[in-house]
Amino acid sequence: MVNQVDHRTRLAWPAKMAIEVREAEPEEYADAGRVTALAYREFVPPDDVGDWGRYLARMADVAGRADRTHILVAVEDGRIVGCVTLEIDGRVGDWDGDPPLQPGEAHIRMLGVDPGARARGIGTRLMAACEARARAAGKGFVTLHTTKRMEAAQRMYSRLGYERTEDHVFPDGFVLMGYRKELSGSIT
Question: Domain tally for the chain?
């Protein structure tokens, strides 16, 4: 398949290195954005006329959304290996028709793991951290979107208890698949 990363090629990672998931520091925004854009680069269609390129640039602009969202990073041995944006009080607001958050809703955006660090549970840890923060903020459910090409993400979301909801279809036919998970133990 064109533009697919060979996930069998791994960076040399120590087997027992601890992975810390935490809020990104401002000086880490550029690296967090680089990792996020790198994670999505494989999904850029070969016939892209610039839409994906512009989206990758927005993904990389962590500083541009950090004032209204939560940016969480997975760090291993001082290196960012994953990043996710969590909307609790505000939206990234990067596409038309992006509705305000519903009462009780948190929304996960732009989950990305360095291609060389995949299949090690980093995405799952970032998702768990998002859910914990949403619960702590009194949210009752988490929503997210993904695309048809992101099959590994779809499998992870299903495994974590997310259920399919309504899709968002853009005027050009691009589909964002909707997912939702009710949070047990939330304050609401």
Answer: 1
